[in-house]
Amino acid sequence: MVRRSTTASLFARAYERNLKALTKLTLSNSKRVTGQVQRATAKRLKPPPGRGDWLSGMALGPGGARGYHLFRPADLKLKPGERLPLMVMLHGCGQTGRDFAASTRMNALAVRQRFLVLYLEQDRLAHPQGCWNWYERRSGKADAEAATLMAAIDQACVLYPVDRERIALAGLSAGASMAALLATRYPLRFRAVVMHSGVAPGAAKSSATALGAMRGQHTPPMPSTAVGKAMGAAAVFATLPPMLVLHGDADAVVAPSNAVNSAAVWATAVGAKPGLSRTLQRGKRHPMRVTEFRRKGRSLVTLCEIAGLGHAWSGGKASLLFSDPAGPDATRMVWAFAAAQFKLEAPSLISAANT
User: Fold this and answer.
1) Residues 6 or more apart in contact with residue 51 via CB below 8 angstroms
2) Is the alpha carbon torsion for 25, 27, 30, 36 positive or negative?
3) pLDDT of res. 230
4) Residue 94 near residue 322, CB atoms below 8 Å
5) pTM
6) Cα distances (Å, whole numbers) of residue 21 to 8, 9, 24, 29
């Protein structure tokens, strides 16, 4: 009996030690995970660089709820009744609105040029990698999400001094493809749309076809009637806003052929014809080949194919994901392109690339 009692006591003490060790480890891991979550949350809420206000909001629509941040430059002195242009920015997969703002440095340009910037935010419940569901056309999820994003844009127009006649869209990767979808569903709402490293409009209708389209395996139909069906255009083709397409020829995520297809699809839809291509380079930055598609003397589509650029924002801030400082300054080019459509005094797209 004594031996059995001693053995039981040893087991009890060993069990107690293991339980204490397990409890200590669990608490330690819990504190570490909690710390990581708190740091990630603090980073996400911390305003990106830029002298101004980083204002949060939430909008509801057919696709659920989506958050957004609006950047308002500091020390704005508006004249009575004055309204400002709005640049709508759509981040890529694996990014947040704050990441996109830090990479592009669009806020700094907004301070100098006096415009507002709206960063739409994908919900991780809607897509675990933070991608926009631009390709889910067959299920209707893409159109529902586009309608929700329009609700966010409309909300910003109500809450802030936005000039509804001067709104432009720009997106990277999945954000570029969603920007194109928004422009085709609501063509009269935007004066310009920019696709940076996105999939050609009409090239995918589901997650399965999206992967093939990213590899350049699906080419959207080219006749204008088929283009309308592929893109889901809700209005006459002539109402589509002018488009700027930026893409790196070293992109291993979204095939560079998508850039050519995007420009061709849009140009076909608006009846524009390609002109001669020219190569531009500033210093040691990556060179780019620029092709303009015109109709009646007006440039409606501009294609910029950037040599040596991967899947990244051209001219973006160093050390950030999906950002390449060696490329021409896409941020300046985006604003110059939009401003030209707004008919503001702004440098041309070509001069912006060379500054």
Assistant:
1) 73, 74, 75, 108, 111
2) negative
3) 47
4) yes
5) 0.83
6) 20, 18, 5, 12
pLDDT tens, position by position, 200-211: 998 999 988 999
Residue 306 forms beta bridges with which residues? 248, 288
Considering only CA atoms, which of 194, 149, 197, 193 is closest in space to residue 173? 197
Going by the DSSP 8-state scheme, the letter that residue 188 receives in this structure is G
User: How many CA atoms are closer than 13 Å to the CA of 317, on its beta-carbon side?
Assistant: 16
Euclidean distance between CA atoms 185 and 137, whole angstroms: 12
Say how many C-beta atoms besides its own lie within 10 A of residue 11's C-beta: 10
Q: Which residue has the tokens 């501009």?
A: 302
As a whole number of angstroms, the longest Cα–Cα distance in the chain is 105
Give me 61's structure tokens: 């629509």
What pLDDT is stored for residue 24 in this prediction? Answer: 76
From CA 172, how far away is CA 165, in angstroms rounded?
A: 23
pLDDT of 50 reads 74
What pLDDT is recorded for position 27? 74
Orientation angle between helical segments 97-104 and 106-113, nearest 10 degrees? 70
Of the candidates 82, 50, 162, 87, the one whose C-alpha atom is nearest the C-alpha of residue 338 is: 87
What is the distance between the alpha carbons of residues 197 and 303, in angstroms, rounded to a whole number? 11
Alpha helices by DSSP H, listed for the chain, are 2-45, 97-104, 106-113, 141-159, 174-185, 207-214, 224-231, 257-270, 330-342, 349-353
Positions in the chain whose pLDDT score sits under 70: 1-8, 11-12, 15, 22, 26, 28-45, 221-238, 344-355
Q: Are 95 and 108 in contact (CB under 8 A)?
A: no
Q: How far apart are CA 215 and CA 270, in angstroms?
A: 26
Of residues 111, 92, 94, 130, the one with CA closest to residue 48: 111
Interatomic CA distance for residues 42 and 37, integer angstroms? 8
65-120 confidence digits (pLDDT tens): 999 999 999 988 899 999 999 999 999 999 999 999 999 999 999 999 999 999 99
- What is the pLDDT, as a whole number, of residue 113? 96
Quote the pLDDT of residue 45: 57
CA atoms within 13 Å, Cβ hemisphere of 170? 26
Q: Which two tokens stand for residue 271?
A: 């009846």
